[in-house]
Amino acid sequence: MRPILILAIVFIISYCVYAEEAPILTLDDCVKAALANNPKLRQMASKVDVDKANVGIAKSGYLPQASTTGGYAHYDTSKISFGSFAVSGIDKRYNVISENTGASQLIWDFGQTLNRIKAAKETLSAAQYEFLETQENTILNAEKSYFNVMRTQLLLKAAKDKLEMTKTLLGRAEGFYEVGYQQPYDVTKAELSVANANLELVTANKDFELAKVSLNNIMGNNAGTDYRVIEISEFHPAEINIEAALKAATTNRVELSKLQAQARAAQADLEAKKKGNWPTVSFGANNQISDTDTPGVGNVRSWNAGAQVSWPWFDGFKTKSEIEAAQASLKMVQLGIEDQTLMIALEVQNAVLALGEAKERINATQKLLQESSENLEISKARHEEGLGSLIEVADAETNEVSAKQTHASAIAGYLSAFADYQKSIGVISPHSVGK
């Protein structure tokens, strides 16, 4: 089960928004669709493939290098011309076909190739962490959009209930007016309540459709909005410890891991650059065959093998400038780690505070809902005994619907805040989807 759903105790399915045949989407359904269709995620996967290939390119420096070249040449020395003058020469025409095969193997370059391989591997690690970062952001966006759909779905349900309630009250008011029990003002006020409830229903339906359009966009779904979502109505709020949250964020956040991998790559690149003016030792062998049709010459074969030392001890200060650039890049990444650490700490603290506020809001709205329900029961009892007016009952019913709307928004707000908290400590993971 996804960590956010551990909070849920009871899942209540609402059948009042759409017909019973309308499909029901769960949180896992939405997250899976978002992960499958997100173009940014596929782009990051391609970047990982590119960096994986770059590791192979870097490793090729330690493997043997071999090549074969061929050539054809035609020689004609029968006549030599200088401008308008021509000098007769040796009458000789011949063709030469040559083939040259060589191989070389790096023996030692004082760590240049080794550090290039290390830098490529760390760059690959950074790309993999960036992929995970994009994956987590996709999950977070899908979760928050899902909870927003749930919130607007609950508000739409409350708006429909309110409209039905005001229509019932209007019928009562008209009936009492006809028998002279109430004043015309009561009927007019009931009609106004119906009109306002109709307007609220239109707004609630619009908000619900817009929320589903936003969720569809994240899921990559163009099939329409004829669906509903499961509503989470009861759960136990989580107990949060700020120190444990900060420690978990430092350990789990992939943004930090990505920057740390980039720092290791920059350090390895710097070490490689520092060896730019050092010697390189390699072993090479070469075999050459020349086939000529010159009489008395025929084929010419030659081969050689041996060790070679190359020492680029001066390159116009190119290596010096490359070292300075690598040092600056490393410093930039190190400062980025410090900045990211501060940002993560701030993000965790904000998430914890927002979660605490959302928890208190649920408690307050729960109490408000309880009080409004009790007040409605009292108003109905007073009206039945002739001690209260129908308007008093109508006001109490309206207050109860408003309390339900506020409580529904508070629940969705808490779930969304908890998703933000999970992301802040780095525990969002696709591996728990569907479990």
Secondary structure elements and pairings:
Elements: E1 8-12, E2 24-25, H1 27-37, H2 39-59, E3 65-76, E4 79-82, E5 85-88, E6 93-108, H3 112-178, H4 184-219, E7 228-229, E8 231-235, H5 242-252, H6 254-274, E9 280-292, E10 299-310, H7 318-384, H8 390-425
Parallel strand pairs: 2-7
Antiparallel strand pairs: 1-8, 3-6, 4-5, 6-9, 9-10
Report on this structure:
By secondary structure, the protein is of the alpha+beta class. It has helices at residues 27-37, 39-59, 112-178, 184-219, 242-252, 254-274, 318-384, 390-425, and strands at residues 8-12, 24-25, 65-76, 79-82, 85-88, 93-108, 228-229, 231-235, 280-292, 299-310. A 4-stranded antiparallel sheet has the order 3-6-9-10, with no helix packed on it. A two-stranded antiparallel ribbon has the order 1-8. Strands 2-7 form a two-stranded parallel sheet. Helix 3 runs antiparallel to helix 8 (390-425) and helix 7 packs antiparallel against helix 8 (390-425). The longest helix is centred in the middle third of the chain and has 67 residues, at 112-178.
Descriptive keywords:
Outer membrane efflux proteins (OEP), 4-stranded antiparallel beta sheet, 62% helix, disordered N terminus, two-stranded antiparallel ribbon, alpha+beta
